[in-house]
Design brief:
Blueprint (H helix, E strand, L loop, with lengths): L7 E4 L6 E7 L4 E6 L4 E5 L6 E5 L4 E6 L5 E5 L2 E6 L4 E6 L8 E8 L5 E7 L7 E7 L2 E10 L2 E6 L5 E6 L4 E8 L2 E2 L3 E5 H4 L4 E7 L5 E6 L3 E5 L5 E6 L4 E8 L5 E7 L5 H6 L6 E5 L14
Length: about 290
């Protein structure tokens, strides 16, 4: 089940809570966030150049959008980000969100909609839920009453959407179409398969398999379309958060990690924790659609 692949730390980002990694095909760069440090990172694998922009609030995700912008989810709502000027501009609030919540993870679908989740910033209350941003409007869509949401993730055909309930150690799936998402049902009970690990950010590959980072799991895991655990890839960090497919052939897996729950001894044992990692995946991903703002 474990696939032995060479893994490298391509950027020592020292993340407290690295998340939201994705590949920007137009710019040929990797974007990811450090939620707790309010940093929006970009990394150019061709040159090794990298830098971060300081977000106005804890930032859960950023996805490429139309007009050369990024759409970002922060603690206090949605922002656009202009990479040329490192400028964040408030777009809107998320109606009905409790003051103690923040936004955590997101993806786009083939229609340019952005699906995202919220959660209690203190990770105590089951106040999180999922939403969809559709050309300027936001509405609840998907499961609710969740402590830590992760995902969503959409398959290439746009027929399935995956929602993660991290604390419950479950990945859910719903049918998806241009009209929206159906009722969510159990896809994988990761707690039964990997009891010490917690499923974090998911992504779907070109073969319709679901990959997920495993917090406290030191690896990423791959699940078949039927929800069967088919492979794991070990990484040199304990708290693995999310994976994305990138590079010219979409065969490079980029993986974020976290250190916020680690002790001094933990850091001695895994000194590369908090880095952005990469390995050559056994299968390719697919290009992520840009978010439509209007």
């Amino acid at each position: 089940m474990e696939v032995d692949l060479p893994v490298s730390a391509v950027l020592a980002a020292d993340c407290l809570l690295g998340e939201g990694v994705l590949w920007d095909a137009d710019r040929a760069v990797v974007w990811f966030v450090d939620i707790k440090r309010r940093r929006l990172w970009h990394f150019d694998p061709a040159s090794g150049s990298n830098r971060f922009a300081e977000a106005p609030a804890p930032i859960g995700w950023a996805v490429p959008a139309e007009g050369g912008l990024l759409l970002c989810g922060c603690k206090d709502g949605l922002y656009t980000f202009a990479p040329e000027t490192d400028t964040f501009t408030k777009l809107c609030d998320v109606p009905g969100e409790p003051a103690g919540n923040r936004l955590n993870d997101a993806c786009t679908d083939p229609w340019g909609r952005v699906w995202f989740g919220s959660m209690d910033d203190a990770e105590e209350q089951a106040s999180g839920r999922f939403y969809v941003f559709d050309r300027g409007s936001i509405r609840p869509a998907g499961p609710s009453g969740i402590s830590i949401t992760n995902g969503p993730a959409v398959n290439r055909a746009g027929t399935r959407i995956y929602f993660t309930d991290t604390v419950a150690q479950k990945i859910l799936v719903a049918d998806l179409g241009e009209g929206g998402a159906g009722e969510a049902r159990l896809f994988a009970n990761t707690g039964a398969l990997l009891p010490k690990a917690y499923p974090d950010g998911p992504v779907v590959d070109a073969e319709d398999h679901v990959w997920t980072g495993l917090y406290f799991g030191s690896c990423v895991a791959r699940f078949s379309p039927a929800g069967e655990l088919v492979a794991t890839v070990a990484l040199p960090a304990r708290d693995i958060t999310k994976m994305a497919f990138g590079g010219p052939d979409l065969r490079t897996a980029y993986v974020t990690s976290a250190t916020k729950n680690m002790t001094g001894k933990d850091m001695i044992d895994t000194p590369q924790a908090g880095s952005l990692f990469a390995f050559t995946a056994p299968v390719a991903g697919f290009a992520q659609p840009r978010a439509r703002l209007v």
